[in-house]
């Protein structure tokens, strides 16, 4: 009898997750909590199959986009993010460093390109960039762009004017994570609001830059918070072009240093659900990879992850060495994604986005 009950529950979850509301590869911005829960509740094999099917409909399943992340200014951040080693409020072993010289940043970018990265990301431990910092930051963007790399920055909150200035300098992507669900947010950060984060993303999008936004799982949140976070991201219009899913790296001295580890299958589920809900976004297997074995990473790629950070360090936390990543890619038959940067391809991208937005408006009006 219990087997019949379990079968009925699975059938219900599968029915919800396979309804007309979940048409293959459809981009939606009206996800409801019960729909996301139905995806998380699917049997693992069914969830993986659905995610892989959607992934293959939108991407080459054997290509992964490779980025390198450099900390251009480290430590002394006034924010109180409970997971972060760079907060001035916690005693960690992070050395405080001033904003790097432009030439040193460009040297690092050249090395990243030589190792196979196609996007160079620059991060600063700021609440927001000051006026005195913007000229140097702009110079970094222009210099990295001139190397033929895609450019990305994460500098904290941005005003509309700052976003426009970075876009004019040639910045392709701006990263600003939502971190967690709106419901759990105040348990993690109190020095800026959830709306502050959404406002920065709005400024970035309005400037014409691409959005990189994801979150961190394993912050002591509940399953419903992970579902809520993904709903927040998917309901952004347009959806973020890049969605980093981070597994908490516990740092001694921070308030979350002793939080319970997140189950690895739950993390893989997050990747799969993100792929289903954001079918055309690059889902990045981000922080926490250093603690994942090759088999877990392979499962994440199967679940739809198609972007990684490459190199030995992510800002201030560890990351698998570059040669290990290339060895794993070779074993899995994965190639690194190339950059399409010519004018024709850029025009095709803008046309595709416009067509998708028109389609989304029609879909939302009809439902």
From TrEMBL:
Enzyme class: transferase
Low complexity biased stretches: 1-21
Keyword Methyltransferase tagged: no
Binding, [4Fe-4S] cluster: 77, 81, 84
Enzyme Commission code: 2.8.1.6
HAMAP family documented for this protein: BioB (MF_01694)
Name by which UniProt lists this protein: Biotin synthase
Species for this entry: Colwellia chukchiensis
